[in-house]
Amino acid sequence: MRVRVPRRSVGRDRSGRGWHWPLAVTLVAVGSVLLAGTGGALLRALAGIAGGDGVVPVLVVGLAVDRDAGGVIDRLIEQVRRLEDGDYDIDVPTDRDDRVGQLATELDELAATLAAADDTNGSTEGETPAPPRGESRFEAVFEDPRMLVGLLDPDGTHRRSNETAMSYIDADQEAVAGVPFWETPWWAGHEDAQAMIREKVERAATGEYVSYEADLTDAAGERFSREGTIRPVTEDGAVVSLVVSARDVTERKERERELERYRGLVNAMRDSASIYDADGRFEVVNQALANFYRTTPEDLEGTQSHLVEHVRESGDGETDPYRELVDGHRDEIRGEYESTYPEASHAVVEYRMTRLTVDGEFGGIVGVARDVTQRREQERRLRAIVENTSNPIYIKDREGNYQFANEASAAFFGLDRDELVGKTDRDLFDEESAASIREDDREILETGESIVIDRTRRIDGEKAVFLENKYPFRDENGEIVGIIGISRDVTERTEKERELERYREFTDDILDAIDDVFYALDRDGNLTRWNESLPAVTGYDDAAIASMHATDFFTEADRPDIEAAIDEVRETGRAREEVDFLTKDGESIPHEFVATRVQTPDGDPAIAGIGRNVTERKEREEQLRERERVLSTLIDNIPGMVYRCANEPDWPFEFVSEGCRDVTGYDPETIEDGDLIWGEEVVDDDTDEIWTTVQDAVENREPFQLTYRIEDADGERRWLWEQGRGVFDDDGDLRVLEGVIMDVTDRKERELALQSLHDAARDLIGTETENDVADLVLDVATEVVDTPGVGIYLLDSETNTLEPTAFTDTFADLYDGPPAVTVGDADSLVWNTFVTETRTIVEDGEATDGTGLFDDGVRNGVLVPIGDHGVFVALSCDGRLDATTRQLVETLVATTEAALDRLESEAALRERDAELKAQNERLRRQVKITEIIRSVDQSLIGANAREEIERAVCERLVTDDTISFAWIGALDPDEESVTARQWAGEGESYLDAIAADGTAATPEPAWQAARTDSPVIVENVVDDLQRKGWRKPALANDFHSAVAVPLVFDEYSYGVLAVYATEPGAFGDLERSVFAELGESVANSITAAKTRQALHAETLLELELRFEDADDLLARIAREADSRVEYEGLATGSDDDDRIFFVAHDADPDAVRDVLDGLVSVSDSRLISDADGALFEVTTTAPLVAAKLVSHGGRPQSITADHTGMDVVVDLSTGTDVREFVEMLQEDHPSVELVARRQVERSTHTRRELVTTLFETLTDRQREVLETAYLAGFFEQPRETTGEELAAMLGVSQPTVNRHLRLAQQRLMEQLFATDSEDSR
């Protein structure tokens, strides 16, 4: 259901008819404006388009309302004059479907209302009324079959309806008489419609003229749309009846929807469509045309058409084709135009123009255009291809006559192209060939399918083979109108194919002579060629093989390998694979396949290969593998590395077992291939002994045993045990050495480490200090670590350095005293090892150290972090530290870390006890501070003046035993010193002894806090005592710590609070935040007190302020809407938004609304009234000058803004610091200036006290709702804001608003009228 916005009621004076004529003329005038502004739009909107190839014709149908509106309006005005004369029987064109028809309907209904009104006025109680002059007219209108008309009582009770209305329901007049109109069958089953019409009736009963729309269901169950009005009939100013009239607008609604569909169809067209006026300007433009010009339809309408200019220029100089079309001397104009269009680009346009006639009159020129640039370019390219190809191309009609032939065709026949056109195949070929060609053409014409034919012809006595492609040639309707043919001379290719076939037969004979299987695959793996061996081996015949894929010859398990091999050939060009051939009988035959990537004569990739039976070879290989497996199993089960090597100094190996990986870290191939020289891996100290021992054993033909060290693949040293013997030939000569080598590193290192760790762990238990631990660990390290340069760094948390706590003499000699390492030194390996908790190994000087640790010949070392305690450093000038040494170091470090952790745990327990004591002390201080602040807050509750607040704060603070003195001061006007206002405690002499200004080397804390608006903490007054200033006088008064906080509220300063304690450290971070909050509370209380004083004061301080270039909301509205804006009131809500009320004078309300809509800070706005200026209500998040004034105790008397700036008059309490107040405003508005200040007398004391007393009983929400309702005109008569609108303003439901208003009004009434006994309750 759709409901129109109701029109404002029109006040009617029944004492005369002076209102008839102005009202009627107004209706006619409005209708004229509507027709003038929309008639053309209605005409242009009704356009439909029919598609087709080429130029698309356009059908435009419309209502030429704007063409004859003048005559109809004259007729309406004449009928209105008849109404003025009292003649209600008028004749107006209500049957029109345009805006004139709507206006006529309104006028017709007005006549009926006037007739009914005169009928009512003519009757009195107890007498039979005389027939009124308009009674016959009223009855005629009432029974108008085109309208649904009914009469209601003012309370909405149905009295009677006409026959048309009754036809829509299944009931008679008696059944609906006396029933509320909204409960009648007309509205049955439509709850929303019932609620709507009831609300409309109630409004009409108040004298308002109401209109409505509704979608309903008639008695037959059919949906229909109704549009109507409810008119009050008054007598002596009272409504005595209601006239309900309605019209069935179902068909109009359907036409409107149809019109919208047509409009969408036009805009959805791909072709450009438009309507031009007689001068060639655009009147209507669809979206496609706007897109072509790269603009919008709105911007294009009214501009001159580039195409129309071209059409006019295309005449012979004496005639104007476009004017001839406008004048009706032409039916249409069509053509093609190539140009560069303004705002578009170069294009070829195919167009058609036709004349639009509406009711016999010229209605415009309809133009449709299509961009054929791309099509023309494609045709040009196609023509170039056709004309430059060496193949004959031709087109013949259905009778076989040549209609087109390219140059190649003409050259083929030896004719000119013009000579060829019109001939038939009989003119060009012998009878037999022509008949064959004609038969082919007939097949294409009948089936509509293309064909490809090889045809042999004799040319100059030689046979020639042609490949002909023929296609059906269709027109734009898809009908076959001829044949398109392309002929290619393939004589040479055919001869090559024959030669290739002969060569293929030759190669087939060769391949069939090979015993191995030959095969060829296409890119997908399908067999394309094979020799006779493939069917012989697999058992498949050639027909079966032709349909098989390469993987079909293998088991499911082997197929992935075959597919992988095919992919490998594609990628690398070659592949080899051994797999079993699966025969047709299911037999598996081992084959080795070798494949190579090749290319077919057509250039396509392919695969060719050979498959060889490897059954015998597989059997021999299996026997060999079995023997090797037995031997390998035997060797692999021997612990260590089994070897065979030559008796040479470098011990070159011929064979090593897999055990070499565990022994050396190298794989067998590396050792056997000579990439690793064993003699170089042996530690130099052991080389001579190994050679001597082996040679002695060989000479004596005895086994030998060795224990020596090597460097493994990781560069670490290993202990090896070796046992071997020489192998001699029959002549007694030594052939090789064979034996086994085992890794015994773990055993050797375990022996050393166990003893050292046992001793160290036992001794570390008795250590009591870190130095004792370091010294003991150093002693152990010198015994077990294979390097003399050992140092132990421990973290000194006081100096933030890693100090060399214990070190060997060699370590000290390397650096003339070991260097300390600063925490955070990124260039130090000691620091990096510590912070990353990662072992650092340096070999051959590969790492650099910013502290010089690896200078002076030290090129190897290991650094191991000792947990969170420090770093163990072992350095070597001789060589790398082997794995055993590093492992011993790490083991020793682990023992050291455990000892230091023990010492740290014991120290942590002691620190924990101290920390618990400190926490208890902090808790005690926090409880005390909380009690003090609570006491101060209690003192602020009842204070009514600034002096009382300041005095109470100081007195409450010094009640604490640790606080000796407290005072509150304020900056002097020159802001160079602080003057005390209130103080309490023992220390008044301190104020006389100090200068609370910035002249001292260390300014007094109160002066610092006042100047910086930040808290200042002095934990110990003794610090920096030698500098002159306030500290010595403070100590003289037994002040040992101090805190000073500013008293600031919303950037307005009330001075500073300074507090002094008798103990050092009494004020820390906790006290800083607590006292800072206290400062804010004191400032807030002073502001509240000043506000109360201002409210109750009769003598006030009035300030006149001028804001130049103000950016306040009111100033912006005045400036941008070019109006004068006056402040009306302010309502603050519970959230961050403010609701301000203002009146805009000399401005269009729509202009003000546009300004408000453009402001991001405005979340809601509403025009309340425009009776005397435009009264607006605006909800905004922007900071307002009015809100600023109110929050600081001010009472705005007036705020006026215009395009030059903003003037403000505000009342303040007489004790307000004007300079501070203005500076506070300048923080947000630098341009504000004080124009005047004066003392004024306001006779508001008694009223303000009454208002304050009344409002004390209201909650904040109740007061907000009440104030907003008042400012929004809710209590005006008639109301300027409804309850529903008020609820929307406040963001709550209407019942909630009603409840708040009712409770607020009840409590105000209780304050005004309740008796003393009721008050006592």
TrEMBL record:
<dbReference type="InterPro" id="IPR000700">
    <property type="entry name" value="PAS-assoc_C"/>
</dbReference>
<dbReference type="InterPro" id="IPR003018">
    <property type="entry name" value="GAF"/>
</dbReference>
<dbReference type="InterPro" id="IPR013656">
    <property type="entry name" value="PAS_4"/>
</dbReference>
<keyword id="KW-0808">Transferase</keyword>
<keyword id="KW-0175">Coiled coil</keyword>
<dbReference type="InterPro" id="IPR035965">
    <property type="entry name" value="PAS-like_dom_sf"/>
</dbReference>
<dbReference type="InterPro" id="IPR001610">
    <property type="entry name" value="PAC"/>
</dbReference>
<dbReference type="InterPro" id="IPR000014">
    <property type="entry name" value="PAS"/>
</dbReference>
<dbReference type="InterPro" id="IPR031803">
    <property type="entry name" value="BAT_GAF/HTH-assoc"/>
</dbReference>
<dbReference type="Pfam" id="PF08447">
    <property type="entry name" value="PAS_3"/>
</dbReference>
<keyword id="KW-0418">Kinase</keyword>
<keyword id="KW-0805">Transcription regulation</keyword>
<keyword id="KW-0472">Membrane</keyword>
<dbReference type="InterPro" id="IPR007050">
    <property type="entry name" value="HTH_bacterioopsin"/>
</dbReference>
<feature type="transmembrane region" description="Helical">
    <location>
        <begin position="21"/>
        <end position="43"/>
    </location>
</feature>
<feature type="domain" description="PAS">
    <location>
        <begin position="503"/>
        <end position="573"/>
    </location>
</feature>
<feature type="domain" description="PAC">
    <location>
        <begin position="446"/>
        <end position="502"/>
    </location>
</feature>
<dbReference type="InterPro" id="IPR036388">
    <property type="entry name" value="WH-like_DNA-bd_sf"/>
</dbReference>
<feature type="domain" description="PAC">
    <location>
        <begin position="704"/>
        <end position="756"/>
    </location>
</feature>
<dbReference type="InterPro" id="IPR052162">
    <property type="entry name" value="Sensor_kinase/Photoreceptor"/>
</dbReference>
<keyword id="KW-0812">Transmembrane</keyword>
<dbReference type="InterPro" id="IPR003660">
    <property type="entry name" value="HAMP_dom"/>
</dbReference>
<feature type="domain" description="PAC">
    <location>
        <begin position="210"/>
        <end position="261"/>
    </location>
</feature>
<dbReference type="InterPro" id="IPR013324">
    <property type="entry name" value="RNA_pol_sigma_r3/r4-like"/>
</dbReference>
<dbReference type="GO" id="GO:0007165">
    <property type="term" value="P:signal transduction"/>
</dbReference>
<dbReference type="InterPro" id="IPR029016">
    <property type="entry name" value="GAF-like_dom_sf"/>
</dbReference>
<dbReference type="Pfam" id="PF08448">
    <property type="entry name" value="PAS_4"/>
</dbReference>
<protein>
    <recommendedName>
        <fullName>histidine kinase</fullName>
        <ecNumber>2.7.13.3</ecNumber>
    </recommendedName>
</protein>
<feature type="domain" description="PAS">
    <location>
        <begin position="378"/>
        <end position="448"/>
    </location>
</feature>
<dbReference type="GO" id="GO:0004673">
    <property type="term" value="F:protein histidine kinase activity"/>
</dbReference>
<dbReference type="Pfam" id="PF13185">
    <property type="entry name" value="GAF_2"/>
</dbReference>
<keyword id="KW-0597">Phosphoprotein</keyword>
<dbReference type="Pfam" id="PF04967">
    <property type="entry name" value="HTH_10"/>
</dbReference>
<feature type="domain" description="HAMP">
    <location>
        <begin position="67"/>
        <end position="119"/>
    </location>
</feature>
<feature type="coiled-coil region">
    <location>
        <begin position="886"/>
        <end position="926"/>
    </location>
</feature>
<feature type="domain" description="PAC">
    <location>
        <begin position="575"/>
        <end position="626"/>
    </location>
</feature>
<keyword id="KW-0804">Transcription</keyword>
<keyword id="KW-0807">Transducer</keyword>
<feature type="region of interest" description="Disordered">
    <location>
        <begin position="115"/>
        <end position="135"/>
    </location>
</feature>
<dbReference type="Pfam" id="PF15915">
    <property type="entry name" value="BAT"/>
</dbReference>
<dbReference type="GO" id="GO:0016020">
    <property type="term" value="C:membrane"/>
</dbReference>
<keyword id="KW-1133">Transmembrane helix</keyword>
